[in-house]
Amino acid sequence: MSAAFERLAAGAIARRRSFGLKERRAALEALRAAIGAHESAILAALKADLGKPEAETRLTEILPIQSEISHTLRHLRGWMRVRRVRPTLAMLGTRARIRPEPKGTALIIAPWNYPLSLALGPLVSALAAGCAAVIKPSELAPATAGVVARIVADLPADLVAVEQGGVETASALLALPFDHIFFTGSPEVGRVVMAAAAKTLASVTLELGGKSPVVIGPGADLARAARMIAWGKFANAGQTCIAPDHVFVPRAQEGALIAALRAEITRMYGAEPKASGSFARIINARHFARLAGLVDEARLKGAEVAVGGTADAQARYLAPTILTRTSAEMGVEQTELFGPILPVIGYDRLEEVLERINAGPKPLALYVFEKERTFIERVCAETSSGAVGINVTLAHYLHLNLPFGGIGNSGLGAAHGIWGFRAFSHEKPVLENRFAPLGNFMPPYSGGKLKLIRAMAKLLGRIG
């Protein structure tokens, strides 16, 4: 059994008594200070692991955590407050309240694509809820995993620990009786995590992924859409779980959209993105080979490369690439791309787009670009996804008054803000009997009691 788990789990009962608002705020402040103290190391680690430019690291790794901490500190007192609830008719004479309490000891398994924010962001919620946590950072981003360990070393050892390693380490941790598991990664591994959690009956939050589509309407501002799509798709070289995966566009506007996307790619990354200081790299050789193979296969089966397509295996560089004339038998239409490849698919009727979206697993995000409200509402109403962005991509992740999470294949549960606090909390109901006549409903069931029960059931059936 993990020594870190034993140490943290041993203090669970004591934390219920002593880890109150003041202590939780102190832990969050300590985390914020530790991130600031290791800022230069964070920038260097993300550059080494993913080739991330400083601005992108600050925007997508540091800012989300610091914003989450600030938001949590502002609202934590209210989230922790015991809430009174009104009695229902059947419970007149009782008093009820809900007490949020920590689930206990949590396991946070972080991915490699945003290896800092997706390790420490859930930690903010765990600490806010009063839980201790073991973080298992991704071994595929080793420099950042090391920095995460150094940051956590600045926090109390009986509150947070880091376990580094690969699949064997993750498997060993999943076998332990954690109270809650927070996993971010692929749906395939999410199923493994959920199966492991079932053995110990741990609750889970699964932040997964999927093929997040973009639907462009006939009235969309194509220049604005292209800017948002290019930013959302090519940030972090496309290695983002909510990145646009493919674009549906009215067939008559396909050429104009591609021209606008080409112009935006040039504006953002220059004529040669490989030389740009703003474009990241693929995480490793295996993922590079997968992405390059998808482009090659699509070409062989008849797809056309409208933009990009160039690659450098040694530099782990794949240019921002736009494909047209793709088809269902190609890998680019079957698997989550998770890289800088964007199929653009022309359509004639919105119905065919909705049918294609609904025929596949529910995506983590869906994006709509259109001015006309009826079109927007139809797409929202007739599809299911973790979230919807209207005339915007990615930004809903940063909105801390919105839950972030998937549905079905794209995830289970929600994170961020109060939803993250709730993920690591048990909302314990407490019912107090003041003067409820409950004895009237207990055996022996005399004729008078039976009449009362019948009358009560009839009344409640009418008015609830």
What does this structure look like?
Pfam families: Aldedh. Belongs to the aldehyde dehydrogenase family. GO terms for molecular function: aldehyde dehydrogenase (NAD+) activity. This is Aldehyde dehydrogenase. Keywords: NAD, Oxidoreductase. There is one protein chain. By secondary structure, this protein is an alpha/beta fold. It folds into 3 domains: 3-208 and 412-426, Aldehyde Dehydrogenase, Chain A, domain 1; 213-405, Aldehyde Dehydrogenase, Chain A, domain 2, CATH 3.40.309.10; 434-463, no CATH class. It is 44% helix and 17% strand. It has helices at residues 3-10, 12-18, 21-37, 39-50, 54-80, 117-129, 142-152, 167-174, 187-200, 222-234, 254-269, 285-300, 350-359, 373-382, 417-423, 447-463, and strands spanning 83-85, 94-102, 105-109, 132-136, 160-162, 180-184, 203-207, 213-216, 246-250, 304-307, 311-312, 317-318, 321-324, 341-347, 366-369, 388-390, 411-412, 425-433. It has a 7-stranded mixed sheet with strand order 10-13-14-9-8-15-16, sandwiched between helices. A hairpin with a 4-residue loop joins strand 11 and strand 12. The chain is globular and about 85 Å long.
